[in-house]
Amino acid sequence: MKKKIGVYVCHCGGNISDYVDVEKVRAEIEKDESVFLSKTTMFACADSNQKDMVTDIAEKQLDGAVVASCSPTLHLLTFSAVAERAGLNKYNYIHANIREQASWAHSDDKVGATEKAIQIVKAAVAKVKRSNALEPFRVAATNAVAVVGAGIAGLRSAIQLAESGAQVYLIEREFFVGGRVAQWDDLFVSKETGKELITRLYDKAMNHKNITLFTGAEIIENSGSVGNISLKVKIAPRHMKLDCNEGNLGKAIEVCPVVVPDKFNFNITTRKAIYHNFPGEYPQLPVIDIENCTRCGECEKVCENVDFSQKDEFLNIKVGSVLLATGFDPYEPKNDEFGYKTIDNVVTLPQFKRLVHYCDDKLVYKGKEVKNVAYIYCVGSRQVDGDNKYCSRYCCTATIHAAITAKKKYKDLYNFHFNRGIRTYGKQEVLYDESSRLGDIYLQSFEDHPPVVSKEGDKTIVTINDILTADKTLEVEADLVVLVTGMVPRQDNSIGSLLKIPRGRDNFFNEIHMKLRPVETVIDGVTIAGASQGPKNIMESMNSSLAAATKSFSLIASGELSLSPTIAKIDVDNCGWCGKCDDACPFSALTKTDVNGKLVAAVNESVCKGCGMCMPVCPSNAIELIGYTDNQIESMIDALVSTD
Amino acid sequence: MGAEKVNKSPKILVFSTEKISDPAIDMAGLLKLHYPPTVYTITVPCSSGIKSKWILHALEQGFDGVFIAADGTDCPYGESCVDKTGQLVGATQELLKQKGMDPARLKMAAICSVCSEPFVKHVKSFTNYLMNSSN
């Protein structure tokens, strides 16, 4: 038990001392014979007071410290650091909250607030008397990271990690890398195309000795914890031998009888069951889409490299951290949402962009030349009735960019933007300006009165009550209606479920703290990057990729991990292994072990998260949580009820 | 103990959790949502890690009631927290009955990280209950 405890009672300007008699609190606490020193201070967190505390603790050789001030969420770390600077182990510092839970909560009752503050500080002193210096656990960390998803975010993260010195396993579920960005032509703000960006990143990644790429690959099992995560990867075959004769491949594609919509072009074109990559996709190898293949064998007859005997391969890898860059799905409008799939000239923004890519001198859709294009914004984003309350961020800019591109490419094209307020934030605003100068028409409505797409004879009419012209009802005869679809979370959340990554209200992967810990998840060692976390444009994805890569690398960089010492501890004498703790632990941190011929529970220090779920179920009270021991909790209870 | 309660507001011990209910209780203070100052908080990592032993100790040492501000489904350690907290509350109430104590002296409610108003409502009504049932 400690005998030289220092207690500091904070005025917090007047936030505490206006309601709590801090001098009385100090005087009461001073009566405890273990309290060697007690002071009041105007602002405990002020630099000058922190310096005084360091001097007090060091010079007077205090063995425990308590600051009674605001909520620990604000300043627990501040004063733990003060303790450490003075040479006192940070677990010998205890924080007492007498602002949020006393002076403010009971500002209507100064006597009551003061009495409560006294008991709170007494309880903190009781706890610190029974606290011990603790050192973090150290475990070896594997210098490797699994990057899941090889779109632009995954590629960039992989390169960053490799250049930092980590081994990288780049795991892509599709047979080609490049993700969504490979599908785009010119981009904004730079003139580079998506294809060029991906090519640049792919070449760089493939030339780095630390990066191993797996395509057609998925993680199917995971065990272990930060620093030492074991993953099982399933790799689907391409059903093609690697050295491929292009001439025969062309014939094989020609003879393949299976025709399916091409997802790369958002189903506006078709491909065969055996197909080759697009120019922006890598690796440049063909693949057989085995789900749609009928095994008719026609391709085998003309191409010797077809190989139906290839089977799934399984690979076990060990990594220190996992970085998820699994991207988004484009929103798929519901049937008849703004005429989608019911009116023949309604397409989505991604389809429109591919259409502009394929049409050279005339914009033609379904055999008709397009002159008037109506863009309907916020389809699947900022929904009033649906679940997607968020703004997808990229689409205003992407639409205006696509509209300008089309207008410059084709003669006599007119753009009509049916929007809900344009959000071309930051540098992207110049695009909006350019489009206005080019004569694009902007019509705007509120969310409760969206534009209506209807068919009149063979004409497609878009009607809006335009709030920019005093709610006038305006109609545009559109040759093509483009639904500006936003980003939605991946429909297939298998990797999220496997790694137990929580999702936010928007259903994208959730970070620990939006501002302060933006790329970490509550699962230690798993970081998130790019649009898997929420709608982002390429620049924003790059920022988050570099942040996530750096965060993942920082966990493993030293080859060793420090883990919190406040975890469960088994009293071997009382434990008779019944397995109930093992059943209760959500992290499988408890295992049966043999200690001198007796079966008892053992805590895996790198897996235990210190929740304490194992404690109440133990029939012999053989488990304690360090930092929350029976002795500490019961003495706090005693202090809170004591009337001495 | 009964005699002491006549003029005094009953003492309630709240077991609250660091990540979920503590922020709600702190915010109740920030918003000056007043509740009786005889409500005290001890912070634990997770509401499903509270021992019956602690609850009994509190009630035997002079607390009139124990309130568990449970994590509910928001628990950072997983959703099994809900069932496990429920189980430990049930088991402890059973122990109270065996000891001839009123099981309603232990109360539980899920308090999310912004549930400041529900928290204040709960501790006020619990205070009333304990005040009326004290003798």
UniProtKB/TrEMBL annotation, chain B:
GO terms, molecular function: iron-sulfur cluster binding; metal ion binding; oxidoreductase activity
Domain F420-non-reducing hydrogenase iron-sulfur subunit D span(s) in chain numbering: 12-130
Source superkingdom: Bacteria
Keyword tags: Iron, Iron-sulfur, Metal-binding, Oxidoreductase
Iron found in the keyword field: yes
Pfam families per record: FlpD
Protein name (record): Hydrogenase iron-sulfur subunit
Species of origin: Labilibaculum euxinus
